[in-house]
Write a sequence for this structure.
């Protein structure tokens, strides 16, 4: 610069300083965005894991309240994933990252498929129809059966009949029929196949008919002293049949069985695909920056 004047030397020096300054300061926003993008992907994986875990707990919950709470937790985490995906998309556009944008789009598509199955799973899980049917079987249905048996046992103890052996036979037949129905309710609640449930219902219907015929046959054999107990038995049998009908209707909906089938069937594959996209995205971002190996 010996041939330059004082003004020219200052001008050239100023340009040089500006260039140096630009080299040091211009990339900083990009590095910051890259760091933030990496953090967002990490948080995305965390929220996705929370969504999957909460959904699985909703399926396995043993109360309506727990199922609903876990389903809400899964929904909140899934919305956080959707928001994080939108934020990342904007960052990648600003940074001009084409590969990362493609990987994020891949994840978005897979997550949309996951969400579709997960919503169906959660909708079924919170209905808890199989769980409600089970509670009905162990609660009101059993109580009605116990009341039926207690009334018939009262008739058997009084034994004011011209044919006590026939009375004992009819009582045993009626009580055994209801007990067999109760035994069949458990496999019906757990059964996923409609045809198999129909076969169980046919057998249970026949047993209800057996109990009704045996109970009605007692009318001609019991004395006035046991008519009240017989009326109570008939009332308990009607209650049992009504509750059994409700149980079958709930069991037929099969919401818990179907939600579990989805959770163990389709969801693991979709979960693995989503997580694989996020891992690939993390790996791609790791190659960006000053230590890039591209």
């Amino acid at each position: 610069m010996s041939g330059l004047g004082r003004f020219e030397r200052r001008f050239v020096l100023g340009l040089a300083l500006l260039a140096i300054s630009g080299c040091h300061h211009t990339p900083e926003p990009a590095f910051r965005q890259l760091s933030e993008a990496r953090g967002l992907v990490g948080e995305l994986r965390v929220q996705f894991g929370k969504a999957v875990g909460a959904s699985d707990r909703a399926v396995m919950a043993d109360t309506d309240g727990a199922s609903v709470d876990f389903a809400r937790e899964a929904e909140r985490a899934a919305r956080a994933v959707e928001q994080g995906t939108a934020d990342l998309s904007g960052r990648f556009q600003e940074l001009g990252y084409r590969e990362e944008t493609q990987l994020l789009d891949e994840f978005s598509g897979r997550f949309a498929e996951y969400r579709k199955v997960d919503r169906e799973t959660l909708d079924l899980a919170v209905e808890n129809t199989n769980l409600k049917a089970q509670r009905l079987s162990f609660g009101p249905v059993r109580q009605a059966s116990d009341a039926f048996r207690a009334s018939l046992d009262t008739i058997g103890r009084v034994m004011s009949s011209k044919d006590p052996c026939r009375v004992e036979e009819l009582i045993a037949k009626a009580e055994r029929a209801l007990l067999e129905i109760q035994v069949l309710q458990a496999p019906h609640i757990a059964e996923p196949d409609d045809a198999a449930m129909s076969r169980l219902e046919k057998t249970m219907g026949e047993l209800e008919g057996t109990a009704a015929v045996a109970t009605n046959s007692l009318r001609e054999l019991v004395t006035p002293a046991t008519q009240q107990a017989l009326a109570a038995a008939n009332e308990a049998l009607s209650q049992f049949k009504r509750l059994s009908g409700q149980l079958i209707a709930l069991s037929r909906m099969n919401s818990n069985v179907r939600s579990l089938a989805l959770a163990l069937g389709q969801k693991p594959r979709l979960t693995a695909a989503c997580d694989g996209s996020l891992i690939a995205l993390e790996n791609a971002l790791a190659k960006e920056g000053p230590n890039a190996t591209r």
Observations:
- The radius of gyration is 36 Å.
- The domain at 30-127+257-286 is CATH 1.20.1440 (de novo design (two linked rop proteins)).
- Residues 7-27 have pLDDT under 50 and may be disordered.
- The first helix runs from residue 6 to 25.
